[in-house]
Amino acid sequence: MTTEATREVSVKQSEVPAAEEREQMRTVVPPVDVYENNEGVILLADMPGVPKENLDVLVDKDVLTIKGKIAKVVPDDLKPLYAEFGAAQYERAFTLGADVDVSKIDAKISKGVLRIFLPKAEEVKPRKIEIEVE
Amino acid sequence: MLRSWMMPVDPFFSDLERMRSEMERLFNLAAPVGNLRGVVRGTFPAINIGETDENVIVYIFAPGIDPDKVDLTLEKGILTLAGERDTSKDIGENPDPQGYHRRERFSGKFRRIISLPESVDPDKVSAKYSNGILTVTIGKREEEKAKKIEVAVE
């Protein structure tokens, strides 16, 4: 629907942090669903283990970045037996189309699912045209 | 390529990473651990299992599920998790979207069967769901718990 589609953006190489920080930050890309209606774009991301206080949603010019750190929930004396998931945080970035009204972006996280609503600027919304009958 | 210098300290099992990737090679398992630029894929939900002296703890990464719609049973040392996730429920108060640009999140029925160590006591099970992680804690049988042995000094 939008001509300028919301696209994926990779983290720039210059932003890769130093080795010690990398140690703490095993990062994984969360799966997302992106839907659109006349009001705007809805983005849903699976980020299990991230409480509201660990969630970062940033908009820098036309790049939307979502970041979430997984809260530590394991006991200190836990010995691993089997692990399919080994990350400490989620991160993903998107390019926003020019028709997004950045000041009205709304983000919520519940049960590990992040929902972001990116409203379209008023002037861009499809308008219903009233037909007058003579 | 990235893994060789990335030995992370994270909430889950960093020291198991090497063992897991060896297992992965041996059995050609598709483990849903995402690489730095890879999307998490594989079976939904992902599972981590650990143990302490007192308990065996299973962490199930299942965001956006309704705990009432999930069947969790323990029988003869086998933990079964079955349920369904309908991702269209998460769209929220702007329903009926015109269509989707992307759909990567798992939607539909799932079932996972986990074989627990023999040391567990099926009468001591509890489960809680928080921030999308379902944590199942199963107590170990009394005689299986690691016991400290006091050393008497003569």
Describe the structure in brief.
Chain A is mostly beta strands and 134 residues long.
Q: Order of strands side by side in the largest beta sheet of chain B?
A: 1-2-8-7
CATH class of chain A: Mainly Beta
Elements of chain A, N to C (H/E): EHEEEEEEEEE
In DSSP terms, counting alpha (H) and pi (I) runs of 4 or more, how many helices of chain B? 1
Poorly predicted ranges of chain B? 1-8, 28-40
Give the end-to-end Cα distance of chain A, rounded to a whole number of Å. 33 Å
Radius of gyration of chain A: 19 Å
What's the average pLDDT of chain A? 83
* Estimated helix fraction of chain B: under 10%
Assigned CATH architecture of the largest domain in chain B: Sandwich
Distance between the termini of chain B: 55 Å
Structural class of chain B comes to mainly beta
Helix content of chain A: under 10%
- Name the assembly state: heterodimer
Sum up the overall morphology of chain B in one term: elongated
Give the C-level CATH assignment of the largest domain in chain B: Mainly Beta
Strand residue percentage of chain A: 35-45%
Give the total of domains of chain A: 1
Labels describing this entry:
heterodimer, A: 134 residues, mainly beta, 5-stranded mixed β-sheet, 4-stranded antiparallel β-sheet, 10 strands, B: 154 residues, 2 domains
